[in-house]
Amino acid sequence: MYGVKLRVWGPWACFTRPEMKVERVSYEVITPSAARGILEAIYWHPVIKWVITRIHVLKPIRFTNIRRNELSHEVQVKKVKDAMEGKGDYPYICIENDRQQRASSVLKDVDYIIEAHFEYANDEEIRAKNYDPAEYKDERLDGKHLDIFNRRAKRGQCYHRPYLGCREFPANFELVEGELPKAIDETRDLGLILYDLDFSKDKKPILFHAKMVNGIIEVPPPGSKEVLR
């Protein structure tokens, strides 16, 4: 188990509660699924999967309300594929006709440290990513994946710009080496927080009971009894 520490920050963040269907309301802190998405934006590989172990909150939790323009529909992937195969017209969305203005309760001026490690995906998980496990049987090299992630994080490299819950809230990041910055001196019960989404069950939310102790949140490992499916 090889661990990494990454600092992420930005002026805005919105880690939307799944129970909010219309107006967006953020959790009080970054969720493990959002943290994993940031790591995957920096380094993704079919053989490995990132596991979040700990989250440090470095700045006080502050909310603000904003209004944003959103689209009420999205282009379906199936229609795009059909159009590429000549089975229909290319789909499009007219922004002027599909625009909706919605209120959002978002976080302001966030700063976190994500502690995580990577584990190796099994053959079934690799196939679910549309890759052949046989082609990656020699890719289980601990030092290789750790070195690539650290090098990319140091250089600020990423496959796509990581974001803080919503793509319009980009995340700055840097690799943490040496002593960790001090977390906020606050303890609070955060209640049930999104752990991940179960895509095998139509994106069913997976939750866990989060507690912040002196600014640090311990994230339970996958498959533990603390993870509520």
How would you summarize what this structure contains?
This protein has a single domain, classed as Alpha-Beta Plaits (2-Layer Sandwich). The protein has five helices and ten strands. It has helices at 32-42, 77-84, 95-98, 123-128, 142-155; strands at 2-13, 24-25, 48-57, 63-71, 99-120, 172-175, 188-198, 204-213, 216-218, 227-228.
DSSP E strands, number: 10
The secondary-structure element order is: EEHEEHHEHHEEEEE
| Major pleated sheet | 10 strands, mixed
**Backbone shape:** globular
CATH uppermost class: Alpha Beta
Number of domain modules: 1
Question: Into which percent range does the helicity of residues fall?
Answer: 10-25%
How would you characterize this protein structure?
The chain is of the alpha+beta class. It has a single domain, classed as Alpha-Beta Plaits. 19% of the residues lie in helices and 37% in strands. It contains five helices and ten strands, in the order ββαββααβααβββββ. Strands 1, 2, 3, 4, 5, 6, 7, 8, 9 and 10 form a ten-stranded mixed beta sheet that branches. The radius of gyration is 19 Å and the shape is globular. The two termini are 25 Å apart.
